[in-house]
Amino acid sequence: MSDLREAVRERYAERAKTIQEGSSCCGPGEAFVADLCGDDAYAAEELSALGLDPAASLGCGNPTLLADLHPGEIVLDLGSGAGLDVLLSAWRVAPGGHAYGVDMTDEMLAGARANQSRSAITNATFLKGTIEAIPLPDASVDVVISNCVINLAADKGAVLAEAFRVLRPGGRFAVADMVAIQELAPEVKSSLDAWAGCIAGTISIAEYTDALRGAGFADIDIEVTREVRLDGVDGAIASAYLRARRPSEALHASAS
Known about the structure:
alpha/beta
């Protein structure tokens, strides 16, 4: 697992040197996932209002819209990269709200803070850490978002358990991620490079649903948005929107 995490960190440290805005596992030269990374998820005027380049809005979707954010809410982005979704979230939850991003890559964090300075948004904070051990207290956020990152984690159960932990009762989980539609070949799944490219880490919708339920989430809904078969690789993947909710304490207690 440590080898996998280091492979992902090294890949995204290198990517941070070549991008100035945006946060995505779908990058230049990765044509096998280009169909999943549409350029229509973000409104250009929103990014322009923050001083960010609309051309850098690659991603598996737009979790900031999926989450239906409101002023005053506290938002956390898992694997925040160069900060696009954090800054958009901070913009949406103002006044009175705050957006946090957590990322393990120093180079991405530096880029995110530079983008924050460019945007002049003050109600955002970027934290160094892993999504398996989020550096925030229990029940401290209203919404957890993520954009094409959870599939990179070897221990998705730990990630989802942490997301549940930091959410307040009734809090929302709103994530764009990749899922497996048809099982990938074992040699692809075992490739660290494929993990870091958002391919081999995908799991099926049924597995994702079970993992969310196992972490304690309710009201689980997974909507496939784009499906693609990979050239030269057996299997198929898709981008998807995943919605869930941490039950209220009363419901959680009765369920347990």
